[in-house]
Amino acid sequence: MESYRCMNHPEKMAVAQCTRCGKPVCDECYNPETGRCRIRCGEMTAPGSAGAPPHKNVVMNVIVSILAILGGLLVLLLAICGTILFSN
Ligand SMILES: [Zn+2]
Ligand SMILES: [Zn+2]
């Protein structure tokens, strides 16, 4: 049975798994504070980064998508109503 090896150091044994990307990492690459790998997922959670958290952006995207769908449905509804009115 082959044991896990660090994704960045194939010669090193992995001591943990990144909680974000799930890749095995050695003690050098693993950040116990975040539970993530330093190289791939550590940078994205750098403290002090300005701007809104990414969660807010996702919510905004969902709201915009819903509004776009509602707008499209409204136009479609108006078109159907217009067709019905004209056919009568
Ligand atoms: Zn990772
Ligand atoms: Zn490593």
TrEMBL record:
Keywords: Membrane, Transmembrane, Transmembrane helix. The chain crosses the membrane at residues 62-86. Pfam families: zf-B_box (PF00643). The keyword Transmembrane helix applies. Residues 5-29 form the B box-type domain. One of its GO terms (molecular function) is zinc ion binding. InterPro entries: Znf_B-box (IPR000315). This is B box-type domain-containing protein. It comes from Paenibacillus solani. The lineage of its organism: Bacteria, Bacillati, Bacillota, Bacilli, Bacillales.
